[in-house]
Amino acid sequence: MASPAFHSKPRPVPQFPPTPKTIIKPPRFYSNQSLIVPRSKPTGPTTESENNKECVCERPEAIVICRKCGSELLGRIQMSCPAHPRKMCLMDQRECPSTTCRSIALMEITLED
């Protein structure tokens, strides 16, 4: 009784250095403290003065207080900007910084100079 011959396909060998076809480009672009997602459709023309009125991206730091546990920190609450809906500031807080709380009930108190 003869055993059947087993023919396996050879494994693909990864190329080094990678060619442009093997490099996967990330879908997002990073800046200093912001994550900018590429637009899928171009939007209509808007004036810069309209964007400045609605923009919340460059607002000053404030005291962020958790309404559930009372912990506080210096920073900002994360919110979407009406002028830049695809921009997200990465250092802004979405939830309580306390590891035992993690509530989303945050309150922002602006600092006066």
Molecular structure report:
6% of the residues lie in helices and 19% in strands. With 113 residues, it is mainly beta. The chain has a domain of 79 residues. The strands form two sheets. It has a three-stranded antiparallel beta sheet, with no helix packed on it. The longest helix has 7 residues. The protein is elongated. The termini are far apart.
List keywords for this structure.
3-stranded antiparallel sheet; 6% helix; single chain; 6 strands; 113 residues; elongated; mainly beta
Question: What composes the largest sheet?
Answer: 3 strands, antiparallel
> Could you give the count of β-strands?
6
SSE pattern, N- to C-terminal: EEHEEEE
Shape: elongated
Give the amount of beta strand, in percent: 15-25%
Q: Could you give the order of strands across the largest sheet?
A: 1-2-5
Radius of gyration: 25 Å
Q: What is the SS-derived class?
A: mainly beta
Secondary structure blueprint with pairings:
Layout: E1 29-30, E2 34-36, H1 48-54, E3 62-66, E4 72-75, E5 87-89, E6 106-110
Antiparallel strand pairs: 1-2, 2-5, 3-4, 3-6
Please give a quick description of this structure:
This protein is mainly β and 113 residues long.
